[in-house]
Amino acid sequence: MNTPINADILNQLYQVILSRKDADPNTSYSAKLLAKGSKKTAEKFGEEAIECLIECATGNQKELITESADVLYHLLVMWVSAGVSPDDVWTELHRREGISGITEKAARPHNSLT
Q1: What CA–CA distance (Å, rounded) separates 67 from 43?
Q2: Nearest to 44 by CA among 111, 35, 63
Q3: Higher model confidence: residue 1 or residue 22?
Q4: Which of 30-39, 91-100, 102-111 reaches the highest mean pLDDT?
Q5: Poorest-confidence range of 2-11, 42-51, 71-80?
Q6: Where would you find the membrane-spanning parts of this chain (predicted)?
Q7: Residue 98 CB-density burial (10 A; 0-12 exposed, 13-18 middle, 19+ buried)
Q8: Residues near 44 by Cβ (< 8 Å), separated by ≥ 6?
Q9: How far apart are CA 71 and CA 112, in angstroms?
Q10: Short-list 54, 112, 46, 52, CA closest to 78
Q11: What is the pLDDT of residues 17-46, one digit of tens each?
Q12: Alpha helices (H) along the chain
């Protein structure tokens, strides 16, 4: 079956994760992650991102797809934990639309992490 997929899936997944925020950590993986706090959700996102990078670097497309899905899920968990909504991010992306990446990055305030 060839079902069209679009960005709405991210909004839907965000809503599911958000709905699990106060669920029993023994019955919901999302609740279990969220119960550990922002530091742990950020660490888990980082672990998944590294796994994604490894699959890309080794040319393993099938595993890159799987790990990419994991990265997106854990990014959304991190957003829920930090109180960020997809609309916040979509608004920022829309603001950047039509602006050169070089120009946009140069306009950002500089800090020690960039």
Answers
A1: 15
A2: 35
A3: 22
A4: 30-39
A5: 2-11
A6: none
A7: exposed
A8: 33, 74, 77, 78
A9: 25
A10: 46
A11: 999 999 999 999 999 999 999 999 999 999
A12: 8-19, 29-35, 38-57, 61-82, 86-96, 101-107
Q: Which domains does the chain have, with CATH numbers?
A: 39-95 (1.10.287.1080)
Could you report how far apart the first and last alpha carbons of the chain are, in Å?
Answer: 43
Is there a contact between 24 and 34 (Cβ–Cβ < 8 Å)?
Answer: no
**Rounded to an integer, what distance in angstroms lies between the CA atom of residue 29 and that of residue 24?**
9
pTM of the model: 0.83
In one letter, which amino acid is 42? A
**Amino acid identity, position 43:** E
Residues in the chain, total: 114
Res 55 pLDDT > 80 = yes
